[in-house]
Amino acid sequence: MNDQGHNKPGQYPVQGAGLGLRRPIADQLMANPPEDVDFMEVAPENWIHVGGKLGKKLRFFTERYPFVIHGLSLSIGAPSPLNEQLVRDVKEFMAEHNIRLYSEHLSSCGDDGQLYDLMPIPFTEEAVKHVAARVRRVQDILEQRMALENVSFYAPVDSSMTERDFLLAVLDEADCDLMLDINNIVVNSINHKYDASEFLRAMPAERIRYFHLAGHFVEDEDLRIDTHGTPVDDEAWALLQEAYALFGPVPTLLERDFNFPPMDELLGEVRRIKELQLASGRRSVANG
User: Which of these, 8, 114, 144, 204, is most buried using a 10 Å CB contact count?
Assistant: First the structure.
């Protein structure tokens, strides 16, 4: 599936290295807006219809940085009716803040109620058709394409298909884009014993819009928990470098949700992303 070197012109909504904007670090970032950060991302559910001081904080950043948004609660794989009002709210939010892309988790987070957790979808042909139909409806309402993220999971509901084949089938059936999470590949490959490089090479280059990179918790030698609360580990850095070799310097966002380190340490990881991107670009020129 990898179509190395054949990325579509203008397929990336942003460029370079990004940082997830979280409320606990917003004041520090406002006091000294980092030049190392090329774009930012927020979860729209945390900011839609927010006014006052918090609304002004968000506007401070959206006026200075390109933005993408990554949803938490659309529950694209749930059996319950699609929350079309949320999609309409997202569309309005995107227009208000000039947001360049909306992505969501390829997961479920509730049925009759909100679970506030990301649950796996059964890896079945029936689920492919169900999810794809919902994604197409979202894209119709938004009047633009959306991207889905490969998610971490721990206890598969139904493994009639592999994670890789399920993801590829949904992307194809829905004709939507991919926001590829590098850390989730590492976590899942260890927890479910598959080859991370093989999974990466199967991804469709023409659908990739940007990458996520984050840290995870080592529960045991064969169990990793996707936390976004630790520094990026060596395995994820190595897979990111491999991804750049395969797909070029794809825009990459650093996720950190809690246990925030000193700002220079956090931005050091953003700078490391940029260094790997630059090195990848130099190798591409040299090999060209």
Answer: 204
